[in-house]
Structures are given as C-alpha cells and as structure tokens.
Amino acid sequence: MKVVVSGASGFLGSHTLDLLLAKGIDALGTSRATNSSQYIKKIKSFSNMPDADILIHFAESNNRFEVNAIGNQYVTDVQDRISFLSKKYPRMIYVSSVAVYPEGASSLRSPSEKLTPFDTYSEAKLAAERIVLDSNKNPIVARIGNAYGPRMSELNVISSVLRQFISKKSKIELVSTDPVRDYIWCEDIANAFLKMCESESNGIFNVATGVGYSVLEVCQIVEKITGHTDYDIVTQKRIPNSSIVLDISKTIEQLKWEPLITLEQGLSNLIKEKAN
Fold first, then answer.
1. pLDDT above 90 (res 96)
2. CATH 3.40.50.720 assigned to 2-148+185-210+245-259
C-alpha cells in the first residue's frame, strides 16, 4: 500500500504523514510550499502528483473568509481539481469539514443527513464531496471536527484562549463565549486517517469526539490547568444557539476507531509545550 498525503506541510497533513511513516507505511507527502523534509515532494501543480494506491487530500484552503471572498471561481477550481484527482487514484480520502453543517441544531449532526450549502466555503466542500463519492472507485469523505494541537493556526479560538491565559492577561478578549464546538486532538485525527487507509469501508465519516464544549467551558478548563483566575472575559457579542457537535457512531463501528485524548488532556499538553 502506497499513500500520498497532499498538503503535507500543513497542520493536519503533517501529523497524518508523521503517523503513517511511524507505522512503516510507504507514504509520501506533497506540498506547494518550500520544505526540507525528504518525505515531502514539492509540486508546482496537481497535475504533477505522484502515483499511489491511496490519496489523502488535505490541500484545500481552510480559510473560510478568504474562500467566501473569492466566490464562485473558487468552487469551479475545486471541482476541476477534485474531478482530476478522484479519477487518478484508486482510493481517495477527501478531507472535508464540520463547516458543512449549519449551526444551531441541539442534536448530533449525522453524516447521512441532507445538507444545503449556505456560503461559498460549504458549497465548495459539498461539491467536492459529491464528486469524490460519485467518481472515485473507493471513496471516503472525512468531515473533521474542530481540530487543535501542535502546529495549529494561531488564529483559532483555542490559540487565542491559550495565548491570553498563559500571558496572565487581566482581560480575556474573545468574540463570544457562546458557541459550542466539537474539539478533537490532531493525533486522534491522524489515527482516523490511518484506519481509513487500512479499511475497505466507503462513504462519509465524521471524525470528532461527539462531545461539545462552549468557548466559556474551554476558558474554565484552561483556568483550571494554568491557575490563572484573576481575569475578566470581554466579548464582542452574544451568539446564542450556535452549536455543532458530530455523531461519530458510524466511524467507531465501521473503522474501529475512537478518540483517545480528552479536551482537558489536549489543552494540558499544549500548555506544557508552550511553557518549554
């Protein structure tokens, strides 16, 4: 089994490639960015992608605001790219996102529910999912929860909370403490992709924990870990009824996978890392 990981210099792509190599799998990463790893090949375009039995495709923008600003052309470009890749590889694992699910539902979001795009980002993701499911021989779509861990972006809410608590800020400034999200540790995600490579299952799988935490609850956990209690939280607005938590029962049953790292364990790991 040979596996190619596109976007291997990115956050989740790099963790997935690391795990595959550690398990002795014949894996190669690709990236359009400059890198120094012998296991990552720099490519100028997706037409230069190396052959393999399996492609795990991370190499799409995760910047929702940027994608929405580009508009329809982005969707067209994604469709062309995914159509080419899904026909090139015998098995394609497409990395989708929790962001295809609308906010507000109190129930767990199922991979079987019918979804309607509500912005350019979700339109591009859902369009790519359909192409992979319709045209690849052995397709998997992985809808990833709110990922966090080493190498993550400094722009997400967990990075912001950690930065301010570790700096002992007297004012913790956040957009809102209301949203409830399903946070999942990066290495648990990488392990899910390993299971997908080893499995013969096809279809859509949620990769998350099935447990939701509000931003306020994240702050309370970080307070407990850091011991920083002398602060006030300042928010820009209320965002009530903002909840996205995923149903992972299909993933557990068919892939024999489950998340191992709790949110408190993961946050503690990150705080220890930043302290060193």
1. yes
2. yes
